[in-house]
Amino acid sequence: LNLGADDYITKPFNPLELIARVNSQIRRYTKFSPLKENNNVITVGGIELNKESKEVFVDGDNIRLTPLEFKILTLLMDNPNRVFSIEEIYERVWNEPVFNNVDTVTVHIRRIREKIEINPKEPRYLKVVWGIGYKIEK
């Protein structure tokens, strides 16, 4: 054991004891091994977004977003502190060029703010950069 082994068993051994010891080592390994980094979960401040389950939690509360709101929030949270123009948000989320649809993004941003911010008029997370666009602030 002093040379790096975690356990040993003497001969003759009982197969049931061997299985029990192996299972014990597996439990110990999974309990104390560092968790794998989960790229499907993004956390910025009090917002936690799970890309796989399509869930958003703000300060532990589950927030319901429409699919487009979820896509916008995912784009912003994948790139914290990066400013996206309204046109860039539209093109990335809707996958089509902007014509006169900039108000659509503004309305969706307002709805997201109403859902994730305590006071949407003084947002903690979803910030406007006047004349440029929007960003999620860490």
Number of domains: 2
Run of helices and strands: HEEEEHHHEE
Content-based structural category: alpha+beta
**Termini, distance in Å?**
47 Å
Cα-atom Rg, whole angstroms?
24 Å
* Number of beta-strand segments: 6
User: What strand line-up does the widest sheet have?
Assistant: 1-2-3-4
Q: Your description of this structure?
A:
The protein is an alpha+beta fold. The chain has two domains: 1-33; 41-136, Winged helix-like DNA-binding domain superfamily/Winged helix DNA-binding domain (Arc Repressor Mutant, subunit A, Orthogonal Bundle), CATH 1.10.10.10. The chain contains four helices and six strands. Strand 1 and strand 2 form a beta hairpin. Helix 2 crosses helix 4. The longest helix is centred in the first third of the chain and has 18 residues, at 15-32. This is Stage 0 sporulation protein A homolog.
